[in-house]
Amino acid sequence: MDILLKQVGYSYAKDTPFEKRALTDVTLHIPSGSYTAIIGHTGSGKSTVLQHLNALLQPTEGSVLIGERKIEAGTKAKNLRDVRKKVGIVFQFPEQQLFDETVLKDIMFGPLNFGVPEEEARRRAIALVEQLGLPEGVLEKSPFDLSGGQMRRVAIAGVLAMEPDVLVLDEPTAGLDPRGRREIMDLFYRLHQEKGLTTVLVTHSMEDAARYADTVAIMHGGKCVATGDVRDVFANEEQLGDYRLEPPRTVRMQREFEEKTGLTLDELALTEEALARSIAQALTEGREPK
Amino acid sequence: MKGSILSFEQVTFTYVPEDEAVKPAVSDLSFSIGEGEWVALVGHNGSGKSTIAKLMNGLLFPQQGTVQAMGLKMSEESLWNIRSQMGMVFQNPDNQFVGATVQDDVAFALENNGVPHEEMVVRVRESLQQVKMADYLDHEPHHLSGGQKQRVAIAGALALRPRLLILDEATSMLDPQGRREVIETIRELREATGLTVLSITHDLEEAALADRVLVMNAGHKQMEGTPDEVFSSGEELTEMGLDLPFAMRMAGLLKQAGVPMTGESMTEHELVEELWTYYSSK
């Protein structure tokens, strides 16, 4: 499902003395099936953009097209059920939204609300608990008796249980340990590929953006200042610097390596594995007598 | 090691003691933190780190073993005295602000402790200087960045002149820049004052700066040593759900890809040097 933000402006508390502009003239196209990372400094407007993706916020200027549905400034959008069903958002620290007596009930809450039959909702919950690497016995427990990492997984299961077409992730792994982070990011990526989801990742981690995304958008001062292919965005160190962002560590190491040895790697390495392979190859070729 | 500021002796704690099927959150744990040390407590989610923090300040009491702090055995009677000598900074910067301005916020605990006004003004200024936030006295906390908020929270703890500063995942909600700011602040603070610090974290770049690292795994202490010693155990750490610093991960991957590596490079800079040496030695 495509999402298109067209010249979107947004002000909090509009027409009051407390009015505060958060977005200015943001145009951003998220093509169906893409994996887009939105990066930017704290306060750049990333989270405000995110809330437009399922009409939690409605633009004060411009329009947002979510699939077939158009949300326009100035008209009050009603009946947003369909939009909310198709676009699932995993907020930061989603475990703070857990509320039900048992893990099972908590995960089933969303789908039941959207009219999924009880049996089906239960089936999804059971499958998701397994996919997310939670022990089976967890279903009947209170979500509040779980560890922080497990609570996070339950909250994520609650969003996935609605089987959205578009998955929007706001720093979904902040506060998790390294293995948990990798497992959850890999799971999102697998779902993205297997189910042909459209995925939007809002993140501070340039490494995650490089590893998983195919497109990157940079937010700065409430504007979307650049979008492009992940390699192009991360190769442009000057542009990143302008927006107080750093390239991923792999890119920084690649540059240092190239400068030191005078060798040039074939392409920008986006993951640690790829960087190691490229360096090994360049060294072998470089060492061969010409 | 100088005198111990905090020690656990064979501490075991279970949330549900009546149910034997429930494993203890912390079992048979012993460690000690000496005056002036910086110790990092690391472990995966659910390894017992948060429980340990609660045992340290008397929010929880162990079923077995003893917790000692500031020379006192932790008990209902001693806990107020102990807490007054410990500063704690928590994970979420937004959950720990009470004051309308930065200086009010730092003064809050002092006021609660009946510190006279003149003394309070001096301490507020001094502690904000220590975290380089003295220019923000009258700023509203919610207009600060995450890193600045956490530095103010640290100043609030410092104003009480604690003997031990505990950072409970204090950098995990920050962006990379905020994280660096806070870690740098702690490093400078340690250099200037020699304050004893315990950081509970799974950020290994933070742990790498500590004098000593304790690694928790499923309620047990799995490893203890200098950062170099702990990181050199490589796979054992990754099996526990932790990670290695970037340079060491890269060294491992390069080795797999057929580049002979010594495994001694601890930073990416050293790693590039090592690759260059190898390349130019043909």
Automatic annotation (TrEMBL), chain A:
The keyword Transmembrane helix does not apply. Residues 3-246 form the ABC transporter domain. Its EC number is 7.-.-.-. It comes from the Bacteria. InterPro entries: AAA+_ATPase (IPR003593), ABC_transporter-like_ATP-bd (IPR003439), ABC_transporter-like_CS (IPR017871), ABC_transpr_CbiO/EcfA_su (IPR015856), ECF_ABC_transporter_ATP-bd (IPR050095), EcfA2 (IPR030946), P-loop_NTPase (IPR027417). GO terms for molecular function: ATP binding; ATP hydrolysis activity; ATPase-coupled transmembrane transporter activity; cobalt ion transmembrane transporter activity. Forms a stable energy-coupling factor (ECF) transporter complex composed of 2 membrane-embedded substrate-binding proteins (S component), 2 ATP-binding proteins (A component) and 2 transmembrane proteins (T component). This is Energy-coupling factor transporter ATP-binding protein EcfA2.
Automatic annotation (TrEMBL), chain B:
GO terms for cellular component: ATP-binding cassette (ABC) transporter complex. Its main location: membrane. It comes from the Bacteria. It is a peripheral membrane protein. SUPFAM superfamilies: P-loop containing nucleoside triphosphate hydrolases (SSF52540). It is found in: Cell membrane. Keywords: ATP-binding, Cell membrane, Membrane, Nucleotide-binding, Translocase, Transport. Belongs to the ABC transporter superfamily. This is Energy-coupling factor ABC transporter ATP-binding protein. It comes from Planococcus maitriensis.
